């Protein structure tokens, strides 16, 4: 009997905490009302069905609160696995996959096929209405061939955002695979971060959330910096404090900001409810970069 009473008391305390938390989220929900939020979901962040379900729940929650989430995904590890299965060797240069026509065929099959549909299904399983697209649909991401001998790697040149805004206006959640359409009918393989930055710029997005597998941009002592200006990011890159794998992320952030995105947040996508923590709490998550 006593044990039952204790359990019921604990449940009541949990419920009170949940109600308080919802109430505290109100000003944040109001602040983001109607905002376009582009979220880059990397292949590493899709490792488990549980992480996927948690991400999908956050997205549906955002949509339910009248934010307009747009997902741009990667899938590097899944492409690697398929290329290995097919015994096609693959190589990276400056973080980009050197892409032969044969590679691009596999990249499109994996990204537009399994990866895209897994995310679409995860969102729909949580009660959302997600629609899968790639940068080739309605030529939403027009690319030139990137420089540097990378083969069919695309450098975004123009975003035709109409198909995305039409979906948002219709109440759908677009999920976009990072392929690009060439002017001569080519299919380009585009780095997921690069595609997300370009699409966020093309949509004049309020936020770009780059979900990664690190906590954020760190200072010389290894502490995460929560607020950075574009100028500080430039200086930290020059001095070598920002280095290695963080450089493409901060570069994407700076490009997106110069294309009109209000703020870019680099955060750890492996943490539970990373998107909700960033958008709907006072504390936020990761590193925010602004002009
Ligand atoms: C990437 C596209 C996928 C991607 C690739 O082929 O792996 C280029 O490198 P993550 O999971 O976000 O790394 N494209 C040109 O970016 O996936």
From TrEMBL:
Principal location listed in the UniProt entry: cytoplasm
Catalytic activity, as annotated: N-acetyl-L-glutamate + ATP = N-acetyl-L-glutamyl 5-phosphate + ADP
Top-level class of the enzyme under EC nomenclature: transferase
The terms under GO molecular function for this entry are: kinase activity
**Known EC number:** 2.7.2.8
Keywords (A to Z) from UniProt: Amino-acid biosynthesis, Arginine biosynthesis, ATP-binding, Cytoplasm, Kinase, Nucleotide-binding, Transferase
Q: Report domain Aspartate/glutamate/uridylate kinase positions.
A: 36-267
Alphabetical list of InterPro entries matching this protein: AceGlu_kinase-like_sf, AcgluKinase_fam, ArgB, Asp/Glu/Uridylate_kinase, NAGK-C
Pfam families per UniProt? AA_kinase
Task: Tell me the compartments it is located in.
Answer: Cytoplasm
UniProt-annotated site: Transition state stabilizer, residues: 40, 249
Write out the pathway annotation from the protein's UniProt entry: Amino-acid biosynthesis; L-arginine biosynthesis; N(2)-acetyl-L-ornithine from L-glutamate: step 2/4
Q: Where does substrate bind?
A: 75-76, 97, 189
Output the PANTHER family linked to this UniProt entry: N-ACETYLGLUTAMATE SYNTHASE, N-ACETYLGLUTAMATE SYNTHASE, MITOCHONDRIAL
Q: Which NCBIfam families match?
A: argB
HAMAP family with a match to the protein in the record? ArgB
Record function comment: Catalyzes the ATP-dependent phosphorylation of N-acetyl-L-glutamate.
Q: Which family does it belong to?
A: Belongs to the acetylglutamate kinase family. ArgB subfamily.
Q: What is this protein called?
A: Acetylglutamate kinase
Species of the source = Amylibacter marinus
Provide the organism lineage as a comma list. Answer: Bacteria, Pseudomonadati, Pseudomonadota, Alphaproteobacteria, Rhodobacterales
Q: Gene encoding this polypeptide? A: argB
């Amino acid at each position: 009997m006593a044990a039952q009473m204790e359990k019921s008391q604990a449940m009541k305390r949990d419920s009170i905490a949940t109600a308080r938390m919802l109430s505290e989220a109100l000003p944040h929900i109001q602040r983001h009302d109607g905002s376009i939020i582009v979220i880059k979901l990397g292949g590493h962040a899709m490792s488990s069905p549980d992480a996927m379900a948690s991400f999908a729940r956050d997205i549906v929650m955002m949509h339910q609160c009248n934010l307009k989430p747009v997902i741009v995904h990667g899938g590097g590890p899944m492409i690697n696995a398929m290329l290995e299965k097919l015994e096609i060797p693959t190589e990276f240069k400056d973080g980009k996959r050197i892409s032969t026509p044969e590679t691009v065929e596999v990249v499109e099959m994996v990204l537009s096929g399994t990866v895209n549909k897994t995310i679409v299904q995860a969102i729909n399983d949580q009660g959302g209405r997600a629609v899968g697209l790639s940068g080739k649909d309605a030529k939403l991401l027009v690319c030139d061939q990137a420089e540097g001998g990378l083969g069919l790697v695309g450098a975004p040149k123009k975003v035709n955002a109409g198909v995305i805004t039409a979906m948002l206006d219709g109440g759908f959640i677009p999920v976009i695979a990072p392929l690009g359409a060439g002017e001569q009918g080519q299919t380009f393989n585009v780095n997921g971060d690069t595609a997300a930055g370009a699409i966020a710029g093309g949509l004049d997005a309020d936020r770009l959330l780059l979900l990664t597998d690190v906590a954020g941009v760190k200072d010389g002592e290894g502490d995460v910096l929560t607020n950075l200006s574009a100028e500080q990011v430039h200086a930290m890159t020059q001095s070598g404090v920002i280095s290695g794998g963080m450089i493409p992320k901060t570069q994407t952030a700076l490009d997106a900001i110069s294309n009109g995105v209000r703020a870019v947040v680099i955060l750890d996508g492996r943490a539970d409810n990373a998107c909700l923590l960033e958008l709907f709490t006072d504390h936020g998550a990761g590193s925010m970069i602004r002009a």
